[in-house]
Amino acid sequence: MTTKILKQIITFAIASSTCTLGHSLSAEAASLVPGNITDSQFNQLMDDGQFTETFVTSARIGGAPTYELGLLDPQNNLLPDQQGEFNWVSGETVNFTLSYDGNKLDYTVGGQLLSTTTFSGSVTDLFLRTRAADNSSVSLNNLMLMDETGSLALGDTSSAGSGSSDVDYLQVADVTGAFTITGQSVMSWTGDQPRDSELIYQFKAGTSQSVPEPASLAAIALVGAAGLKLRRRAASS
Questions:
Q1: Which of 48, 207, 51, 57 is nearest to 128 (CA)?
Q2: Are 175 and 98 contained in the same domain?
Q3: Residue 53 is part of a domain; what is its CATH number?
Q4: Which of 3, 51, 100, 118 lies at 20 to 30 Å from 108 by C-alpha?
């Protein structure tokens, strides 16, 4: 193979790699990830470094002496950075808004605002977690995400405990830049009111581990192989 042909291969490979990598690194519209996971599977993602939490919001039944609303710090064992009280009424629809711009987090539930500048950095993925103990349910409805690429209707998600607690996750990927999530929550129960985190919904916001696309890896490998052949030819001439 002549040096000229090898140069052409390298030029083509670099162009292909640049194009592919540029596509994978460009902003993509946020999307829902199909399927549901368990708490154990989510924790495994964390343990494997595939997802790193930036912040966690919590809205739960609570009850004295615990708080119902919280902004939790993953860098401090998920202890509250901000917290507040809220009087839940069974079956009542409560509006909420979550906004984050990389420096400031605002979380409003039923007109009550929690705000902090403790957290910083980008968010690429969101995990919406709901949990309901026996004889209770929690639903998040009319969920809408707005980020720098546009808006995405997330639909609804819910958990209903019947005989045991029920946990569900909804994952959103490719979140870009500042974002806002809006929706309504409904917590319901029969009999005694649940306590603490028996009835809860959370937003777990953070970054996921990105993997280069197969085409990118192939192009990079081709560049490396062609370059090695050029060096060997130059050394033998």
A1: 57
A2: yes
A3: 2.60.120.200
A4: 51
Domain shared by 88 and 183, yes or no: yes
| pLDDT tens digits for range 140-166 | 999 999 999 999 999 999 999 987 899
Instruction: Answer yes or no: do 156 and 42 share one domain.
Output: yes
Q: What is the pLDDT of residues 188-233, one digit of tens each?
A: 999 988 999 999 999 999 999 854 344 443 444 444 445 444 444 4
Question: Do 44 and 144 sit in the same domain of this protein?
Answer: yes
pTM summary value: 0.77
Structural domain that includes position 56: 28-208
Closest of 34, 76, 84, 69 to residue 53, by C-alpha: 76
Q: Categorise residue 218: left if φ over 0, alpha if ψ from -120 to 50, beta otherwise.
A: alpha
How big is the CA angle at 127 (ends 95 and 216), to the nearest 5 degrees?
Answer: 135
* Exposure b/e, 128-161, CB count within 10 A at least 16 = b: bbbbbbbbbbbbbeebebebebeebebeebbbbb
User: Helix H segments across the chain?
Assistant: 3-25, 39-47, 214-236
- Domain count for the chain, please give it: 2
Contact 161, 132 (CB under 8 A): yes
Burial class (CB in 10 A: 0-12, 13-18, 19+), 33: middle
What is the CB neighbour count within 10 angstroms for residue 23?
Answer: 12
In this structure, what token pair is assigned to residue 122? 């980008």
